[in-house]
Amino acid sequence: MDMNFNDLVDDCMKTIEKKMKNMKKMNIVIVGKSGVGKSTLINNIFRERLVATGTGARVTDHMVKITKPGFPLCLYDTRGFELGQDSQKEIKDELLKTIKEGSDSGDINRAIHCVLYCVSAPSHRFEPMEIEWIKTFIEGNRIYHIPVIIILTQAFDPEPDKELKKYIESMNLGVIQVVPVLAEDKTINGACIQKAYGLDTLIEIMQGALPDELKDTLMSVQQVNLTLKQKRAQAAVAAGVLAAAAAGASPIPFSDAALLVPTEVTMLASITAIFGFDISKSVITTIISSIIGTSGATFAGKILVSNLLKSIPGAGGIAGSAISGATASLLTTALGEAYIGVMTAMFKGEITAKDLETEQGKQKMSELFKRELKKK
Question: What is the pTM of this model?
Answer without folding.
Answer: 0.86
